[in-house]
Amino acid sequence: MSDSNTGLVTADDTRRDLIILGGGLVGMTLALAAARAGITSHVIDRADPADLVAEGADGRASAVSTASWNLFANIGLGKRLAPLGCAIDTIAVTDGMKPGRIDFQPKPEDGSLGRMFFNRDLRLALFEAAEDEPNIAWHVRTEAVRRTRGAHGVEIELSDGRVLKGSLLVAAEGRQSPTRDEAGFSMAKWDYKHRAMVTAFTHSKPHEGTAWEIFYPEGPFALLPLLDDAQGRHRSALVWTVAEKDAAGAIAMSDTMFINEVAARMHGVLGEIALAAPRLSYPLRFHHAARVVDERLAVIGDAAHGMHPIAGQGLNLGLRDVGALVEVLSEGMRLGLEPGDAQLLARYEKWRSLDSVMVMAATDTLTRLFGIPGRLPSAVRRFGMAAVQRSGLLKRFFMDEARGMSGKLPELLQA
Asked: What single string gives the DSSP state of each residue in 299-326?
């Protein structure tokens, strides 16, 4: 993987339409989606891409909604990614494996509820496409040490001394975005005092494309279907939420003890299990930027909003940002406006604000609702779940939300 600056369409070799800070899943998807629309970009990332896609470096997996899959297909990654994703055909939601669960299963003509991908496979596809895309100049193993935004454009000085110019600065640096913080965006944020334990495991029974969301008072416990490995062993991803006060003990467990604890919470639904990936953990916090634009600046993905992984919508929300931003910019540029035009940024912010707030509020409410201990709250929850199970209309609504097909969708996220 190299730092490439080929294919510029302007006379000035340092200037492009966008300067994207952060070349992760959301930042690089933005660069590719913009490139397909004829929008040029600099992508700056301090990491070494080879480290990010090394075997065993990251065993995490992500749920890609139907709408997000449409985005990947529409920017030319469908053929590359299709064999690597495991379809989520059913989502089973249960309160501690007690009676009264919900089974979300779409009609055959609606397709799956999403697909599970290893993050490594997504990165490999994105990075390979970026290397072959002349509209993307990719700068790795470096970072911005100065950011200047003004009436005539943006200018970034890199740690290696280079200076890059553009019309719009996009912060896609993740939850700890220095660009967002430097711009002084006000944030709503709180700590759930929980930690996510993440890994993948093999199991003796086939998952049959079912994702399990098992709610316990101490936190949700998600089993997410993956493709069988090269030896034909069945695999699933795990996201196990534990209270922060118990996290040190969970992290210190031996692999054998960890697997035994996981198996006890699974009630045998996947049979015998064994670890298939490194165990990772990270704290769970909520944050939401009151604004996502400023003068010649747009903030996307986790830099703008971070939520509990309870519904697997974090990456998908960032990809909706990508689709909306590219649509707004490409339409504006066809009218002769530059990407950093304040009118375009205002339109983008208006489009994304309501959608992101609704998704994040729903996720936060679910987290709190299922975290209330006691028999009575459990009985009330299971009564409500049984009602949803019987209601075709409600089930359809929730399935559309899970598939990312609700609300005003950008064209890139449509089939």
From this structure: E-GGGTEE--GGGS-HHHHHHHHHHHHH
Cα gap 353→322, rounded to integer Å: 14
On whether residue 246 sits in a domain, the answer given is no
Q: Which two tokens stand for residue 349?
A: 């912010």
Give yes or no for a contact between 38 and 189, defined as CB atoms under 8 angstroms apart: no
Torsion sign across C-alpha atoms 60, 66, 72, 77: positive
Residue 293: domain span = 15-188+285-413
For a pLDDT cut of 90, what percent of the chain falls above it?
63
Return the axis-axis angle of helices 66-74 and 25-36, rounded to nearest 10°. 50
Asked if the structure places residue 199 within a domain, the reply is: no
pLDDT tens-digit map of 226-279: 999 999 999 999 999 998 999 999 999 999 999 999 999 999 999 999 999 989
pLDDT, tens only, 374-386: 665 666 566 566 5
For the chain, the domain total comes to 1
* Amino acid of residue 254: S
Considering just the CA atoms, what is the radius of gyration of the chain in Å? 22
